[in-house]
Amino acid sequence: MSSWFKRKEKGIVTPTEQKKETPDGLWYKCPECKTVATMAEHKRLLSTCGSCHHHDRIDAADYFDFLFDNHEYQELDADLRSADPLNFVDTKAYPQRVAATEKNTGLKDAVRAAHGQLNGLGLVVAAMDFKFIGGSMGSVVGEKIARAIDYARQNRLPFLMISRSGGARMMEAGYSLMQMAKTSAKLALLSEAGIPYISLLTDPTTGGVTASFAMLGDFNIAEPGALIGFAGPRVIKETIGKDLPKGFQSAEFVLEHGFLDFIVDRKELKQKLTDLLTMLKAAEVPAAEKAVLVR
């Protein structure tokens, strides 16, 4: 008895010349929930997942692009570069490492600063780039942040710091640690001038950055799920000899324990900042009234 159905070939065979490769960069797969979306949709959502709201890391230029009106801004001190005060060498000489990182990333160092308009409100923003030696804080990072704070103070503009860093830059040793004091002192002057400072902590914000300017905001805010801490969880666990709480060092954990004012989704960041700065502007006491109050 013969079968009424006969398979001539196993599977579907497509001639090689008719095969089409899927171009790279068309699809995005969320590392958390594994949802797949087009890259165009992912970029429209500012590199956040439409399903679980996971926030991918983005660069300083990306923040500038969506925060500043019409994507227009003036970059500050764009050409500052690291020197090599200690003649530091590990697996390669420090100048070689910097040059290679510049070539691979197109960046001059781990922070960029700019001035522009946010929904019509003047704002100075300094944003860190993690892909430049892990967003490490060297002398150029500290100097550019200090100069951005000076610019904000001189022009009486609010200052936004977007932190993303692995901490101090070991290749600069003590010079790196000095940036903690320098940036903190500059922020004290900004505070004395009555100019708002908003600190946005993104994933990850650790080490000397957390121990200085990142936690000194008039408002400390964070993106969802950001890792925030000083030392890493493994180091802390080995030091105290105890298991750490679930979610330890996440933005949500830090908020719950009183170190953040609020967590903001990146898609809502521009409007939240606008609302906050508008509220602060409305609460300002005019100079004439201040003089009366002093008397």
UniProtKB/TrEMBL annotation:
What broad class of enzyme is this?
transferase
Q: Which residues bind Zn(2+)?
A: 30, 33, 49, 52
The main location is cytoplasm
Q: Which Gene3D superfamilies match?
A: 2-enoyl-CoA Hydratase, Chain A, domain 1 (3.90.226.10)
EC numbers:
2.1.3.15
Cofactor(s) needed for function: Zn(2+)
Q: Which reaction does it catalyse?
A: N(6)-carboxybiotinyl-L-lysyl-[protein] + acetyl-CoA = N(6)-biotinyl-L-lysyl-[protein] + malonyl-CoA
Q: What are the record keywords, sorted?
A: ATP-binding, Cytoplasm, Fatty acid biosynthesis, Fatty acid metabolism, Lipid biosynthesis, Lipid metabolism, Metal-binding, Nucleotide-binding, Transferase, Zinc, Zinc-finger
Give the highest taxon in the source lineage: Bacteria
Q: Using the record, list the residue span of the signal peptide; answer none if the entry has no such feature.
A: none
From the Swiss-Prot or TrEMBL record, state where the protein is found. Answer: Cytoplasm
Zinc finger (C4-type) residue numbers: 30-52
GO MF term (any one)? transferase activity
Pathway linked to the protein? Lipid metabolism; malonyl-CoA biosynthesis; malonyl-CoA from acetyl-CoA: step 1/1
CoA carboxyltransferase N-terminal domain mapped to chain residues: 26-295
Q: Per its database record, what is this protein's job?
A: Component of the acetyl coenzyme A carboxylase (ACC) complex. Biotin carboxylase (BC) catalyzes the carboxylation of biotin on its carrier protein (BCCP) and then the CO(2) group is transferred by the transcarboxylase to acetyl-CoA to form malonyl-CoA.
What NCBIfam families does the database record attribute to this sequence? accD
Q: Which family does it belong to?
A: Belongs to the AccD/PCCB family.
- Subunit details: Acetyl-CoA carboxylase is a heterohexamer composed of biotin carboxyl carrier protein (AccB), biotin carboxylase (AccC) and two subunits each of ACCase subunit alpha (AccA) and ACCase subunit beta (AccD).
Name the record gives this protein? Acetyl-coenzyme A carboxylase carboxyl transferase subunit beta
Q: Which gene encodes it?
A: accD
